[in-house]
Amino acid sequence: MISCFMLGNVLFQKVKKFEDLNIIINELKKNREKIYSYPTGAIVEIIHEYSKILSNDRKFLNYEGVPFLVLWLKKINIEKILRLNLGKQEYLDDFKQIEDNKYIKALPRGLVCHFMAGNVPTLPIFYLIQALLCKNVNLIRIPIENINIVVELLKPLKNITINFEGKFYSGLVLLESTSLINFPSKDIELNTQMSLAADVRVICGGDEAVNTLSVLPKKTTCKDIIFGPKYSFAVFEKSAMESSNFSQILDDFVNDIISFDQKACSSPQVLFIEKSNLSIKQVASKLSKSIDKILKRYPKNKIDEATAAKIINKRGEYLLSLEKDIICGIGLEYTIFIDNKINLEEPLQCRTIYLKEIEDILDVCKLITPRIQTIGIASEDNNRIMDFANKVSLKGVDRIVKVGFMNLYDSPWDGMLFMSELVKWTTLNLN
Questions:
Q1: Backbone torsions φ then ψ of 179, nearest 5 degrees
Q2: Residue 393: CATH number of its domain
Q3: Are residues 223 and 245 in the same domain?
Q4: At what angle do helices 188-197 and 21-29 cross, to 10 degrees?
Q5: Rounded distance between C-alpha atoms, residue 201 and residue 196, angstroms
Q6: CA distance 305 to 213
Q7: How many domains does the chain have?
């Protein structure tokens, strides 16, 4: 059974049940021509208006990740992403000349089927907006624990009307091009039906989800965009640790730790610090004070029993070792695990961080694989940052960013220009 939360611009107050996914798919396909007829500039203006509504309502801003989403949705950012991904946004509206008698156009691929993970509730909005900008229709399977947040965040689109070049355009068309559903993730029959309908499959999740979904039957013309499990960590170079700005750097890093309870692929799990005039114990103490200060602004995180047991067991392991140590908050508010072993640790999440001292930030190069998504870096030396970035990117890292920005969704993401994957390029040659 399929639970449908939105279809044909109707956000159901009472969840609507379907046995056949084709009813939803056919309804979405009816709206392909409608969103295709919208100029890209009009869609950009609708999205910009949408960002203003979200930014003016405290209810929305209280959802984790929405303050950044608001900035990301602004016109100046959306136009920048379009240029980065497609060269010119005009390619979405008409054939544009690229050389004598040769023209190209970026066409929507059709139905984008999103198989979403549950780690970051706002992430489906980022993917959906980009698919809508490329004038695709969207079927989104969202974990039940997140779907109400996504529904609430999309509601403002219903009341947006803008005037673009003398004509009126409505946010309703964006909703008509979207359906939000949920069904059991292990339902092979429904997953297969959704997979076979897709012109693009966006698959997010861990190893099991990716391996299961990616092998489902699909059209030979279907495009796969896979966001599998990734790991992220941070490095502090000596110049940052010895700078007068070190307290602010720590505060920025703490924000990376607490965002999304470290469940995002971009959340840091380990912090490597280069040897400096500060001992590892001194750094741990300063980090602890920064965490204590910033956590006053955030409610206590809820920890399930299994995770709590893992954290307690790991604390015991470190306390019993002569070569390790911990600093922790009241109860399980946070934990800093201290040791000098150069390795990546199993993520415990819930505001736990492993702190390790290294001789040189380049020592982490041996840990890099294509599974590393983001490295947060703190350094006062741009030449060292550039040298570090060149070496670790060759090993497979997708993003190297200043600490404080690890969880901010940007483009490229996971090593790809997402929007460029959502269109197919058509050429017109008049020779």
A1: -130, 135
A2: 3.40.309.10
A3: no
A4: 20
A5: 10
A6: 29
A7: 2
150 falls within a domain: yes
The secondary structure of residue 416, as a DSSP letter, is B
Strand partners, 38: none
Q: Is the pTM of this model over 0.90?
A: yes
CB of 403 closer than 8 Å to CB of 267: no
Q: Are residues 393 and 419 in the same domain?
A: no
In 3D space, the residue among 87, 117, 84 whose CA is nearest the CA of residue 417 turns out to be 84
DSSP letter string, 180-243: EEE--TT-HHHHHHHHHH-SEEEEES-HHHHHHHHTS---TTPEEEEE---EEEEEE-HHHHTS
| 329 backbone dihedrals φ, ψ, rounded to 5° | -90, -170
How many C-beta neighbours within 10 Å does residue 225 have?
A: 17
Is the residue at 408 inside a domain?
Answer: no
| Structure tokens given for 275 | 């040897």
Are residue 74 and residue 214 in the same domain, yes or no? yes
Average pLDDT (305-333) is 94
Distance CA 255, CA 405 (A): 9
Task: Write down the mean pLDDT value for the chain.
Answer: 95
Is 17 among the domain residues? yes
280-308 pLDDT per residue, tens: 999 999 999 999 999 988 877 788 899 99
Contact call for residues 128 and 138 (beta carbons, < 8 A):
yes
Whether 348 and 242 share a structural domain: yes
Distance between CA 242 and CA 278 in Å, rounded?
Answer: 8
Number of Cβ within a 10 Å radius of residue 8: 15
pLDDT for residue 222 = 97
Domain range spanning residue 314? 231-402
Q: Cite the beta strand spans of 231-294 per DSSP E.
A: 231-236, 268-274
Q: What is the mean pLDDT of residues 48-67?
A: 94
205 lies in the same domain as 322: no
Domain-located, residue 407: no
What 3-state DSSP class applies to 1? coil
Both 289 and 425 in one domain: the answer is no
Does residue 128 sit in the same domain as residue 215?
Answer: yes
Q: Per the omega criterion (within 30 degrees of 0), is the bond before 412 cis?
A: yes
What would the two tokens of residue 263 be?
């469940």
Residues 214 and 347 in one domain: no
CA dihedral over 161, 163, 168, 169, signed as positive or negative: negative
